[in-house]
């Protein structure tokens, strides 16, 4: 049995164990009671609404994916085949890429389904567990999220192992080496990104249209609390938490890991091949990213089991304890231990195990006789990646948690009206881009330098691989981070169910506490997602260059992208424009749908005055139908735009280059779109996520009693800011994480075609 096959079987074994652990988590969560009949009556329409939207949404996504798969299969008939791929043939290559695309899309869709499935079944159980104990409620909510995250990361790893093993096993006898396979399966990452974009965008439009509509009429005009059963849009709002924050984010993180794995495998293969390392070492460098994520599943699983309150026996846990934000903070006035402190302990366990494990993996897998010191250089790169992820999380917390100055500044601005609230929020969002970019810049330069000084002969490739290892380090805790993210909407739904089913104050107190922290965890995971997207996008950009050079003689290799060329500069502007146009269309879609919800809620209040006195029941289904139809209609155009505009520009530039004697113009212009689009996308995502999170928590800070508390003019102004921030942080911002990686995976798939369109002579012999 070859070394590659042994490693692949090891990874399959890890996946099987991880699936068993996920199954145990699901059994543990589902073994808890669903709650009283009143709780189940509230939970049932949420589950039905989420399932109905999911089926329709993913039916549309499946149709679009099949059409694009056909385009890939047909267009790959014109893809160049270099000598190392000659034995596979054109039909074999196009079949592999198309199958990889469909497999990536399928598993990405399953990831969204898994996240939503567990969320809609955990919410009522969390509300019921809150009647038993605080610890029980936290564990049900977090382990529900952990089930989804473990299954999603395992599916991603298993999908890559499956397609890699299929290609390697089928074509090894034809001379295909283990290091060549990653270039043949780039379609997997593209399929994952394509499905994730529509899942995140459609879910984001749904959830925020319902949320904005419910807030404007319910909180501001009618003066009723959040999640009040009298609000006709409340069920649509709770459904939206599942299809947006759960299904969308699950697909988002799946494609992050898929794209990063494929890109890192390409870079590891390129480095080991160009340094003429032995075949066994080429295999370990190529498969190293997969083992890092296998390690991440293990460390996150241990961290999950560490999530429990200090006193698990009593109804009220442990007296007063520290409210432990990641930056420190003051004592909590609540009797319950702060949920963030509870999850932080688990995160530290997962991060510590990941830190130790990744050093062991570097020592085992990246040892090479050519460069004896390379392994610890790359170990330092991974350490910097882990530290960078932690920095992104605490920076995000600083700008979005009301314990700190930026959010309190927005709250203070609310005392003079909605206008000053919005001005302060925009200001905070723009300012919040500086620290993350500074951290990212320092990290990139450090890990690149560590790679170049590792002793490997190809310093450029070693430096780029250093950035890939840093990205792996950053994503090594992704399983735990996703569990924290899914914890948010599960807790939010549990709070809504407790409110709508008229539970006692002590139950609502627990669910409110979990909901408040769930809001913070969602903001923190968005910061983490932006950081990982930035590092992943850089390594994917370099993977694109390496892929193109695989088809060119060394004398004509593409070593840099010159923005001083007018055509490349124009490509860069188009890339930046795509980010702004996409964001504008996404936000407009939320606004249009929210207007329809507002009109419907006002109509029901006007025509059914008994709603306010509980003598008439609102028509929840009407609002659910409005936001579902709007989300399905308005997710298609922005999504297709970011796929077909770069393709059109890339092919157009290739044809122009062919006529003008600039044979590489197509790949250079595409690189310009990718480079500038990535930079603009990261900055825009930071601005949208952080400003939206800051507006949200400024409102929550006022609701604690500051500046007049609930019902005051300051509170009304803060609700306005929150409604502006909703599509920022939950629709456009998270969708940009996916867009950035979609641009990268798209160019990886279609890059060779830009060479063909230019009529370039492919290397032969």
From TrEMBL:
GO terms for cellular component: endomembrane system; membrane. GO terms for molecular function: diphosphate hydrolysis-driven proton transmembrane transporter activity; inorganic diphosphate phosphatase activity. Residues 311-331 are annotated as: Disordered. It is an enzyme of class 7 (translocase). The chain crosses the membrane at residues 7-30, 58-78, 99-120, 140-169, 181-201, 287-307, 347-368, 374-398, 434-451, 463-483, 527-545, 566-587, 635-657, 664-688, 742-763. It comes from the Eukaryota. Its EC number is 7.1.3.1. It is found in: Endomembrane system. Pfam families: H_PPase. InterPro entries: PPase-energised_H-pump. Keywords: Ion transport, Magnesium, Membrane, Translocase, Transmembrane, Transmembrane helix, Transport. The keyword Protein biosynthesis does not apply. It is a multi-pass membrane protein. This is H(+)-exporting diphosphatase.
